[in-house]
Amino acid sequence: xxEKEPVIVVAGDVTVDWFMYPxxxxxxxGNWRQHTSSHADxxxxxxxxxxxxxxxxxxxxxxxxxxxxxxxSESLRDIPPEKVIHSNxxxxxxxxxxxxEKVLRISKSFGYIGSGSGSPQSLPPEHDFEDADIIVLDxxxxxx
Length: 144
Fold this sequence. Notes:
Strand content: 35-45%
Mean pLDDT: 87
Order of helices and strands: EEEHEEEE
């Protein structure tokens, strides 16, 4: 007799985290290349990231399970803060102790951007399994 795969449902607050980081200037090219500038990347966080970590952890350990959580299927850059809260930080290069290598770390937090009024709606798990064996909650106090 085969055992059924356990069902794990992750639910909770979701954010889009924006990481801005410095870009080295150049000696030639357009004017914009010769001045200090920064780039930005968006990554999923909260329950969306926890869903990904849970899936990856189970796969690495060879544990079969069905895991579902809030989807962030759109391009993260296209999700407005009225829909999902955005957090914003600036990264900078910091010297590693005892070495010459530099690494990126958070140098300044710019807080959150959300809906102008009220709270964004929670994103429900992709599949709402009524027969969940495990429910994982990530409640950061952002409206879940």
